[in-house]
Amino acid sequence: MTGVRAVAQGDLVLEFLEILQSLKTYARDLFRCSGKIRGSAMRLLMFLHHHVDEDCPGIQPSELGDILKLTRPTITSLVNTLEEQGLVERLSGDEDRRVVFVRPTAQGTALVQGAKQEFSRSLEEFMDYLGEEDGRELMRILRRALVFFEAQRNVQERNQEQCGN
């Protein structure tokens, strides 16, 4: 009986992984409709849009890399591309001209707002498809899964620190 349970459990794990991969693909597709930029570039632009106020000079590229878990060359490449497209701008620091800040332009802000509207429309269609009861149940389960995965990540990070990695 234990062998049957293990096979069924294994099937459930494989099914879960397949669904996660499919959801990842569909999530990427939701942002493809936003036109000019995709993936990490859109993530970077959205992050800037939500964290840089008008009175703020911007965020330093090194900080962006740390927060978004992207390497320095990747951040530099993304910022260069977004700047060439007129979606972000680099500003030098007032006190130290070597310090550079990145902030979204008006065009970048408009792109993010349009992408958010498209994304909201897609999610509304999805929630309408599920219905209110299933939509709430899905959100409850996803929140519970997130708590589990965050706890697992915290355990792994503590174990790495103890090993000196």
Describe the fold and architecture.
With 165 residues, the chain is mainly α. It has six helices and two strands. The radius of gyration is 21 Å and the shape is globular. The mean pLDDT is 85.
Secondary-structure blueprint:
Elements: H1 2-32, H2 39-51, H3 61-68, H4 72-84, E1 88-92, E2 100-104, H5 106-130, H6 132-163
Antiparallel strand pairs: 1-2
List keywords for this structure.
two-stranded antiparallel ribbon, 165 residues, 74% helix, 6% strand, single chain
Q: What's this, in brief?
A:
By secondary structure, the chain is mainly alpha-helical. The chain contains six helices and two strands. It has a two-stranded antiparallel ribbon.
Which percent bin holds the helix content? over 70%
Average pLDDT figure: 85
Query: Which percent band covers the strand fraction?
Result: 5-15%
Q: How much is the radius of gyration in Å?
A: 21 Å
So how many helices? 6
Span of the ends, CA to CA: 41 Å
Dominant shape: globular
